[in-house]
Structures are given as C-alpha cells and as structure tokens.
Amino acid sequence: MSEDVHGTEVTLGRIETEVALLMRLGEATRRGTGTMEHRLLDRAAYVILRHLDAAGPQNVSALAARLSLDGSTVTRQVSALQRDGLISRTPDPADGRGTVISATAAGLQRMAAVRAARTRLYGDILAAWPEADRETLADMLHRLNEALDARTRRR
Amino acid sequence: MSEDVHGTEVTLGRIETEVALLMRLGEATRRGTGTMEHRLLDRAAYVILRHLDAAGPQNVSALAARLSLDGSTVTRQVSALQRDGLISRTPDPADGRGTVISATAAGLQRMAAVRAARTRLYGDILAAWPEADRETLADMLHRLNEALDARTRRR
DNA sequence: CCCAGATAGCTGTATCGTACAGGTAATTTT
DNA sequence: AAAATTACCTGTACGATACAGCTATCTGGG
C-alpha cells in the first residue's frame, strides 16, 4: 500500500516535470518557428480565431471567459485583429453594450494556414512515431486538457 | 493508402489542437494558482532552479543554451534570483569571463516547495485517473518532449 | 608572444501578452 | 426609477523575452 502511494507520487512528479518542459519547449518552438508561419499570427490571435471558428461569432466577454483571459486582454487582441481585417465587430442586436466578434474570411484563411503549418511541424517532429502512438498521445493530451479545464472552471 | 494518409493528418491535427490548448490551460492554471505557490517563484525562476538542481552549477551561457533562451534573458533572471538569495554567482575559476551560477539551499528548498505544490495540483486534477493511465500520459509527454527537443536542437 | 577574432556576460531598449483599476454606457433587479 | 450589475474600453504596469551594442577575457595563427 505504501508502495502504491509512492508509485503514484513518482508518476505525478513525472507528469509535472513533463508538462513544465512541454510549456517551455512549446514556447521555444513557437518563437523559433517565427518569421514564417508565426509572423502571420501571434499566439493570442490564433487561439481567438480558432475559437471563433469552432464556436461561432460571440462577444468579448464570452471569448474572455472561454479563454480564461481578462476582458481587457481580449479587447486589445480583438482590436489588433480588426486592424488587420481578420475579425469584424458588429453591435450586438440583443444587447446594446455588447459587440459581436466574427472571424472574417481572411481571418479564417490565415488561421487555417497557421494551423496547417503547425500540423506539418508536428508531422516533422513525430515523423518516427507509429500512428498508434500518435493516437495515444492525442488521446492522453485530450483527456489531460479535459481534466485541467474542468478544474479551472470548477474554481 | 489514401485513407492512411488521411488518418495521419487527422491525428496530427488533433495533437496540434491539444498542445495549443494545453499551453493555454497551463498558463491559465499557473496564473490562477497565483498568490499561493506561484507567488513564491515565477516561471522562469522555477525552470532555472530545476535545471540547476538537475544538472549542477553552470554558467549563464550553458543555462541559456539548455533552456533555449537568450543570454540576456538568463542574466536578468539570474539577477533576480540572486537578489532573492536563491542562487549565487561565483567567478568561473577556469574562465575569467564566466560566472558560475549555483542554487543556494534556500533556492532548492523554494523550488522543491513549488514542485511539491504542483505535484499536489496534478494529483487533484488527475484524481479520477487510474495509475496506468497516468503512467501512459507521463510516457507520452516524455516522448513528445524528446522529439520536440531533438527538433529544436537540430535547427 | 601578440594581435585579431571569438566568446561570456551585462545593459539599454523594444515588443508582446497579460492583469488590474477605473471609466462610460447599457441592462437588469428590486 | 434608483441601485446594482454587466460589457466594453482605456490607462497603466509588469513580466518574459529578444536583439543590438558594450566591455572584459580568452584563444589560435603568424
């Protein structure tokens, strides 16, 4: 029994280590990839466009809540995206305070290009992996994210 | 055959999505956990101390190369850590240009506390997971990091 | 052995992503 | 209809990072 507890702690420690490492490597990769796909769209812009693509037009508050970001952060990101013609703001017909953010065709296209580039990058990184392992990785990441998200929202 | 290619792309797309999501959630979690464990040690400080713990005292350039960071960034991080008594600088006896960075006892202890808190957090987040799944997750993350790191260094 | 070039580290400056505090306008509650 | 809440925006600040440029030191070819 004490062995089980010990094994559990070791595994959790490994997970903590690997997630921390992934965050660092992911940042470095994103930064290093720059001047190509990344210059097209910075990180926040990308996640906002992805979310708009996945969940449809919505107002700033909804985006902020969904992305666990401050409203002011989203406001600024959205302003930059609008300046670049990647999203459009329209007044919310149902609520005079709100503005609905929609991805433009250009925005979706730009996002898709970045996404494709990143997908290619993963194809490169995981070139030696058998498909079954890639699927296991995708599954595990998905479950981890679900668990993390549930926890974030519970608080 | 065309089906295999299609399946592969789908999986890579999923991995791309989940890694992007994990980066975002990880950031949000780190931020949200704040005022407790995190206030003790900001992100960069943590990875530097972890690396010093794992790999021993070394100079700024070695740290920067290993962490894929600019030397100036590490210099500043190290200065902050020194101000807080968490690392110490000593002249490199073998190279008059260099300074060797060592974690202090206080630094290691602080790092261990943060690490324990994070490990606890993962225990909380993954409370419902069987040990076997946790191990699979840890393995997959480890392999992903190896692949990412290899790619980063190859470039 | 000496100087030219490389390297280690630091400092100045700039950028990005983010938060918090405070403001205004619109909406909802009582 | 007054009070409280909400949605968004703006001012300001901070943390993490990069790049350019500086000084001190090291090293290898003449």
Automatic annotation (TrEMBL), chains A, B:
One Pfam family it belongs to: MarR
Domain of life according to the entry: Bacteria
HTH marR-type domain segment(s): 18-146
PANTHER family, sorted: MARR-FAMILY TRANSCRIPTIONAL REGULATOR, TRANSCRIPTIONAL REGULATOR, MARR FAMILY
Protein name in UniProt: MarR family transcriptional regulator
Origin species: Micromonospora chalcea
